[in-house]
Predict the structure.
Amino acid sequence: MSYPAESPVHAVRVERAGDHFRIQLRRADGRIDVIQPASVAGSLRTPGDVLVELLAQGVPEDDAEHCVSEVEPGFNAKAELARRSSATTRR
């Protein structure tokens, strides 16, 4: 899993790329980071994987939910996080 860089995220673009997603982050310092499926544990195959990666990159939950819902209408971040949390506690 990756961790937030020193420069905060100012803009996010989430794209479908076949059977997975790709994330582009524009940072306050002008740098653009492209997060490919191979670079993260979840492979960015589901909207929930994208949400978790955005949160790990320091994107606020409401903003992350909005970004994911742009490519996956009706996505509910709170329900997804609750589902993942309960799956983790059952292990």
